Amino acid sequence: MSNIYVDDIGKGFPLVFVHGYLGSSEMWCLQKNYFSKYCRVIAPAIPGFGESHNAKSLNSINDMAKNIIEMLNQKKINRFNLIGHSMGGMIVQEITKIIGHRVNKLICFATGSIGDIPGRFETMDETRDKLKKDGAKISFSRVPPKWFVNGNKDKNYFLCENAVINVSLEAADNALLAMKNWRGIDNLKNIENETLIIWGDKDISYNFDQVDTLNKNIKNSHLEIFKGCCHNVHLEQPDKFNILIKNFLD
Asked: How many Å apart are CA 248 and CA 250, to the nearest integer?
């Protein structure tokens, strides 16, 4: 049984939100409020993170994908639209690899096709080493500011602080290991779903080459770039972000 926390609000065709590293279901709050007026919003917290911090964490992207598929099966959700942010973007690519016929439209947001992200502000191993050396608290205050143009001064930064309150060092390290060992680049050519790719031009976690690789290799894809945004476009320019997605899904 999938024993994770899942927000399930609104009615209509399901839209599934998958958060990223050190994220939570709450990180989508500005999307949940908007989209629940139009569709059924499903927003899980990945095992070990956010509201699912008590669930045993996983160290493989494939296992994270299977965990979400199991949750969808429990809810008897057959077809759905799917969005993943950052590490969640890896998870949604993996979900699409496993059950692509059930995914109506796919949104890959601030993500790439190689888990040990080329051009990231530091390698996964460096982040893992610093996590073990400095401890969870320091690491959790060091990495998330890199996701906003205004760092920890962004008005929505508190959502990142809320997300990590109960996250263990083990859960954080397992996720870094999961990303490091994941490769989705060879599967991009197999993605048949209509796909929207979203990226902020100030993102230092994923450079342009990462989203360009997605766009060039996924047959039916379109790239939208947000100017003056970093990694968390959904919190930096939420209104524009929400409208873009609604138009794509409509």
From this structure: 6
Token pair in block for residue 235: 């919190």
What predicted TM-score, i.e. pTM, was given to this entire model? 0.97
Question: How many angstroms separate the Cα of 17 from the Cα of each of 30, 61, 187?
Answer: 12, 16, 21
Residue 212 tokens, joined:
């360009």
Contacts of 237 (CB under 8 A, 6+ apart): 226, 229
Determine the residue type at 161. Answer: E
Q: Which two tokens stand for residue 217?
A: 């290799």
- Does the domain formed by 6-249 have CATH 3.40.50.1820? yes
Report the length, in residues, of the chain.
250
Closest CA to 43 of 10, 13, 76, 8: 8
pLDDT in tens, 196-213: 999 999 999 999 999 999
The crossing angle, in degrees rounded to 10, of helices 124-134 and 169-180 is: 170
**Contact indicator for 145, 100 with CB cutoff of 8 Å:** no
